[in-house]
Design brief:
Elements: H1 3-26, H2 29-41, E1 45-53, H3 60-67, H4 77-87, E2 101-109
Antiparallel strand pairs: 1-2
Helix pairs in contact: 1-2, 3-4
């Protein structure tokens, strides 16, 4: 288990314990709070697929930057670029071709 995963597990356990205490102390009114906390810790996303035609000399980095502000899942361009690469099976591809169609998977928090 990675260090990040362990940290998330600890945060989840602490949150569950605190929320269980709130439910016990306040009755059912804390249940609504628990639902909101779950959404904060584990957000849900709606995926939208955007078709994009690569222009002459464009790089994946440039295309990623163009769509970065239209998605909510990642704060780091490299993670978003990895999603685009995986979705389009571009692993090992060094150059994009002008006219090539790629799909940009955008994730918006719901």
């Amino acid at each position: 288990m990675s260090k990040t995963t362990k940290g998330l597990v600890k945060a989840f356990i602490i949150t569950v314990i605190l929320l269980a205490g709130l439910v016990f102390l306040t009755g059912g009114s804390a249940a609504k709070l628990a639902i909101r906390a779950h959404g904060f810790l584990f957000p849900s996303y709606k995926q939208t697929l955007v078709a994009y035609t690569v222009g002459e000399g464009q790089t994946l980095w440039e295309i990623t930057g163009r769509y970065m502000d239209q998605q909510d899942k990642y704060c780091d361009c490299r993670e978003f670029m990895h999603d685009i690469t995986e979705y389009n099976n571009l692993n090992g591809v060094k150059w994009l071709q002008a006219g090539q169609q790629i799909i940009i998977p955008l994730y918006k928090e719901i």
